[in-house]
Amino acid sequence: MAVATEQVFLLPGEYHVSRIPCHMATLLGSCVAVCLHHETKPYAAMNHYLLAVNPGGSEPEKGRFGDTSIENIVWLMKKLDENGKMTAKIYGGAAVVSHLGTTTDIGGKNIEMARTILKRRGIPIVEEDVAGTRGRRIYYDTAANTVTVKTIAKTEEGEKLMEKRRDLATRKTRVLVVDDSPLVRKILVKAISDTKDMEVCGQAGDAFEARDQILELDPDVISLDIIMPKLDGLKFLKSLSQHYPKPVVICSTIAKDQSQVSLKAREYGAVDVIDKDKLELYKGPDVIQRVYIPKIRMAAGKVVRKMLFPS
Q1: What are the start-end ranges of the H helices in 56-155?
Q2: For 129-146, how does the pLDDT look when each residue is reduced to its tens digit (9 = 90+)?
Q3: How much is the pLDDT for 278?
Q4: Residue 90: how many other CB atoms lie within 10 Å
């Protein structure tokens, strides 16, 4: 039997098709990996997709979605041998991610998409290790057509994350908006208030107002400006991360992509950073809803820890 020499690790949204024996590996939670194997030749493929259905987007995004990703690796395998027969194995699809404010079964839908496409393509599924509540590490030896699955034990951090997301799924995410501009606050507050799974629990025009509201209101996530009177947002974020950590999304005109300000914000504990100019705040809600709201939602689901900084 041929020995696998090529080593490939797939990140989410990636796939690999090989003509020669190789080892493929990936790490799965609610995502699913489909492994294809040619019955008589050393051809094999594996993908790693995040969601079941492609809503329509750019070519590089197709690997992120089950319908387009599976069809793609089947097509590539057929290019290697148009009449060759292949078998499939399916892994992943665990219930380890809860989308905030929804009860969508991402893992289950990912599994069902794999089964549906493979059945339609006439490719038999010879092995499955799917569903459950734990993640998996997948090791695919294409030479032997064997897949080793290692279950990922739940950590204390993971348990706290799941507990937080389960809590958020039962209620609206509470957001504190901190910005020295009343007009900007008004625009952001309206965008959040127009989102079904979110509500604004408070507003603040400077860091000292924000501090009092954080202690009083205990928000799930904070939208924080940098240029503010009395104390700038970066110094406030650093203090917050040291003493009372909360998920924070920096939203500032000086937080340009890969700028020193943006990098410093992440160093001080920001979950995400938004260049406020890119939100086109005064042109309507479209960009805000597409860019700002998902980042706030994502940050709210994070568990943040106290940070230590050199004196």
Answers
A1: 66-80, 106-120
A2: 999 988 899 999 999 999
A3: 95
A4: 22
E-strand stretches of 118-271? 125-130, 136-141, 146-151, 173-178, 198-204, 221-224, 248-252
Domain residues of the chain, as ranges? Answer: 6-160, 172-300
Any residues with CB less than 8 A from the CB of 137 and at least 6 apart, and which? 25, 26, 27, 28, 149, 150, 152
pTM to 2 decimal places: 0.54
> According to the CATH classification, is domain 6-160 in 3.30.1330.200?
yes
pLDDT digits (tens, 9 = 90+) for 28-62: 988 999 999 999 999 999 999 999 998 876 566 78
The model's confidence at residue 99, banded by pLDDT at 50, 70 and 90, is very low
- How open is the CA angle 7-18-152, to the nearest 5 degrees? 45
Q: Tell me the fold of 172-300.
A: Rossmann fold (3.40.50)
As a whole number of angstroms, the distance between CA 92 and CA 45 comes to: 16
Q: 158 Cβ partners below 8 Å, 6+ apart?
A: none
Q: 132 in helix, strand or coil? A: coil
Judge whether 34 and 14 are in contact, CB under 8 Å: no
- What's residue 1's pLDDT? 52
The structure tokens listed for 110 are 């990912």
CB 147 within 8 A of CB 127: yes
Q: What is the mean pLDDT of residues 163-176?
A: 83
C-alpha separations of 139 from 25, 146, 210 in Å: 5, 8, 48
Q: For residue 148, give the nearest of 1, 51, 4, 43 by alpha carbon.
A: 4
Whether 100 shows a pLDDT value over 80: the answer reads no
Quickly list DSSP for 10-30: EPTT-EEEESS-EEEEEEESS
Mean pLDDT calculated for residue range 299-308: 88
Closest CA to 32 of 129, 174, 170: 129
Task: Give the Cα separation of 25 and 92 in Å (integer).
Answer: 13
